[in-house]
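Running this now, will post back.
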Amino acid sequence: MINIKKILITGENSYIGVSTKNWLMNKQNKEQQYKLNEVCIKGNNWRDMNFSDYDAVFHVAGIAHSETGVSTEENKARYYQVNTDLTIEVAKKAKHDGVSQFVFMSSMIVFGNSAPFGIRKRITKDTVPSPDNFYGDSKWQAELGLTTLKSDNFKIAIIRPPMVYGKGSKGNYPRLAKLAKILPLFPDVDNERSMLHIDNLCEFIRLVIENGDGGVFFPQNEKYVKTSELVVEIAAVHGKKVRLTRAFAPLLKILAKRGRGRLLNKVFGSLSYDMALSEYKDDYRVRNFKESIELTEELK
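Update: finished.
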């Protein structure tokens, strides 16, 4: 018997949404089929749609953290309008129309930014969300609103991924990749980051939807990443060699104290999940670290 899962993805052309759609289509077989549709929730046309034909709504629509540098009151209000209010509105409609599962793409950012340079920050089951900016808070407020909607017939799955990377991703990874290809030396700083390759995330999403799960989830790669080791690995897959040095440590500490801390924290700060948080009943880690870099750098 063929099992068909009907999934509505809210938010067109998002990196995670498009990647998940492609992943699901490629995972179809004689026993499992996926029927996927995307809807843009800008404007009000989505309100007139009938969601009742879908088993799950995967909500990836939102404003990304890249714009948080513009901190006008108008910009802040837009984050809460889109990331919080609109998320809850879509979930309410999904519940009203009889959808059984709502999957929300939240973020590790609900726990705040990376720890200050030289300090470790590991999130455990006892860590309480404490956003540092309105992007993180808009996601956290959405989570709080969604939890009031869950029921036995309406599962809410909240996914809080760490930094997601892969071919075509944005953010810190492509910046580091550029440096890895040109720098002969790189600072050897002891930090610890949780990261998640896009294929591992997509497989996790597939399994959560397949199992009809509700709850809060913390997927990550099977191992922590050290920034210097990431740079070395990226360089290596391009046939280049980067030598690590601790000679820059005193200078980095001085820069961190003189107002460069935000930039240094992004590159060398620590932010990780306790591995116990990321355990799941099914194996979703389909790419190991080396393979994920090769795929991201188009070498596999």
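Residues 3-296 form a domain with the Rossmann fold fold (CATH 3.40.50.720). More later if anyone needs it.
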